[in-house]
Amino acid sequence: MLRYIGQLSKGVIFMEKLGEKILYLSRRDVESLNISIPEVISCLEMMFVEKSAGRVEMPPKPAIHTNGDAFLHAMPAYVPKIKSAGMKWVGGYPENFKKNLPYISGLLVLNDTETGMPYVVMDCAWITAIRTAAATALAAKYLARPESETLAILGFGIQGRYNLETISEIFKLIRVEVFDVLETAVESYRTDKGGRFDFDLQMVSSPKEAVKDADIVVTAGPFLMNPSPIIEFDWIKTGAFVCPLDLDSYVRPEVFLKSDILCTDDTGQFAYFKESGLFQSCPDDIADLGDIISGRMPGRKHADDVITSINIGIALEDMAVAPLIYQKALASKTGVWLDL
After folding, report:
1. Which helix (H) or strand (E) holds 265?
2. Is the pLDDT assigned to residue 195 strictly greater than 80?
3. What does the alpha-carbon distance between residue 1 and residue 5 come to, in Å, rounded to a whole number?
4. CA pair distance 268, 270, nearest whole angstrom
5. Confidence bin at 291 (pLDDT 50/70/90)
6. Distances 181 to 159, 160, 178, 190, 205 between C-alpha atoms, Å
7. How far apart are CA 60 and CA 77, in angstroms?
8. Distances in Å between the alpha carbon of 8 and those of 12, 63, 285?
């Protein structure tokens, strides 16, 4: 029989027999907890404020590449405010669909901040998808025009879908235009949702058609080691907000260079990636999203500004959300206890 010491001041619950048992949460377990999009956005907003104040710890994420455009990332981070420390080990393999396997897979471990002992390990597919999409919505909240009502999504897989759902939590969308190599992508979404959404959702025939009238543009394709980007700055509507989630795989260098404001979710990670050969066309002086969210730096200044936020995806986002998953799993008695 396991007993719990109780809930610490910042929300993390610890076992009395720390070091003897660990909670395992499968992907199905995590998804069954029904954590809401506003809850995730709130976790990220708190984290970005802490990050801007220098009260977090996160090294750049190293990567190995075992197969073409595939990657494996080690992503450790620490958010003292919520006593959240741990690491995500995550892979992205673009060719997995040919084997009926997901593009993103991996595990996330949380460690007790006093002893270092691991106390939960969970599948990381859901947290990766939702925190990435929530970061897009949060960036748009601070950088897109408040009256934004049209959205373009290029790449309508799991990440594209989650971005639609998180952005529609912040903005009252009336039209969403999608470009995807799979012609059935939108119809599949309609079927899964039973047609229950309050905006016009359409599949378009080209990236340009999707982008040209959009207030918010999200690219959500796979990362490419040797990309041939296609999205031109002249396609982008005056006053639009652009969020390339696939690094520089689909947005041409001119978009970064000509944007009125260019920011990223972490300038340290951005510099690390630039040293590795990515973002060679980008200026070195780039704003940090956390500083904009915290108010340390201004966001949008003019309605006609084109603003681009390069959201690389950072471990702090995972560590901001993972304790919430753990707490809800304990409260609902979800998961399996394993011996260490």
Report:
1. none
2. no
3. 13
4. 5
5. very high
6. 15, 13, 10, 17, 9
7. 10
8. 6, 34, 40
Per-residue pLDDT, 8: 39
The tokens of 29 are what? 């377990």
Average pLDDT, the chain: 92
Residue 16's pLDDT band (cuts 50, 70, 90): low
Q: What is the Cα 241 distance to its own chain's centre?
A: 16
Domains of the chain: 4-127+316-339 (3.30.1780.10), 134-313 (3.40.50.720)
Q: Is 187 left (phi over 0), alpha (psi -120 to 50) or beta?
A: alpha
Section 308-328 average pLDDT? 96
- Point out which residues pair with 97 in neighbouring strands: none
Residue 14: pLDDT band (50, 70, 90) is low
β strands within 147-296, DSSP E: 150-154, 175-179, 200-203, 216-219, 241-244, 261-264, 287-288
| Exposure class string for 133-164: b at 16+ Cβ within 10 A, else e | bbbbbbbbbbbbbeebebbbbbbbbbbbbbbb
Identify whether the C-beta of residue 33 lies closer than 8 Å to the C-beta of residue 39.
no
pLDDT tens, position by position, 52-90: 999 999 999 998 999 888 999 999 999 999 999 999 999
Angle at which helix 158-170 crosses helix 37-52, to 10 degrees, equals: 80
